[in-house]
Sequence to fold (358 residues):
Amino acid sequence: MVVAKSARMLVDALLDIGVKSIVIDCFADLDTSAAALDYACVKSLALPNIKTLVQQLKAQYGLNYLIYGSGIEQYSDSLAFLEGQFVVLGNSTFSIRQLQNKRYFFQRLNSSGIAFPEVVFQQPEKLTGWLVKSFKSEGGLGVADAIDGAQDGASVYWQRYMPGQVMSALFAAHAAQNTATILGIQKQLTTQGYLFSGVITELEFPNSVQRQLLEWIQKIVDCFALTGINGLDFIYFNQRCYVLEINPRPTASIQLYSKVMNTHMQSYFGDDSQNRTSPKQYRGFKIIYAGTFVEIGSEIAWPDWVKDRPQSGQKIGLGLPVCSIVATAKSTEQLMKSLDDKTRAIENFLKGNLNYAI
Fold:
């Protein structure tokens, strides 16, 4: 079983290694519904929304194993329930709660000698140059420039804004060997301020800096008992890294690599050293957000480079994700041009101009 806010990338990654899945997610897009053996769509991953469905599908298909994706971190009671129903191939509820305890998280980074932008848990007197972040932010949601006015310090913290490139490291924590491996480094794309909108491979990241990251990742893995595939978000500025957060699950970056779910599953069961692959080309993934209200028409012939295609008749509000696009190129410049061209094509397509050939 796969449970995620958007499960498509996990379904595809499992198909890449010959595994089909039963899915619960919040979109049931065309790609997921076509690739899954069965699926159910829910409003959110809150326990009342998924509990009965999980039990029904588990009994119907005799399921034993579960992989979760984005969104489940917001509902630790749902994850605790799933841990009682399946062998969960993912980090434990306990580990996720520790990571969401930002005071504890940054204290451990500090004691481990891991650099991060300055963080405070009481509203600064002067807010210029500060970001305010939710304890449970995901994909840039709940992150904003700090503004005047009191805010609830019980649910947010403040982090000093730092210039530089937002990046991520996709890594695997191997429980059996008590080791960690970096699978790839990515540049992150953002929109609407700090909202996550995609990733592109970074094939020229300095080896010396990558070794520093791996040392930090190993310390974090040991501290929080992480396992399987995870993501580390960081700022890269003046050839130095500053940790932002851990995404304790397979992230959107898995779409840039092949056979990654072998690595995820084998990290629980044994050596996965033969299953790791590195990209030989620059690859990119980008989310297309609605610039206005969109209603998806029937019988749309989506280009094959479009993923997460919405069901016909679906109504999508301003600023919400419509679909995503993928591209491959021989350089970062070519890749960004391809993503930009495809973005404009889809935007024109949604406005009624059906000429989307690239």
Q: What stands out?
A: The CA atoms of residues 292 and 318 lie 5 Å apart.
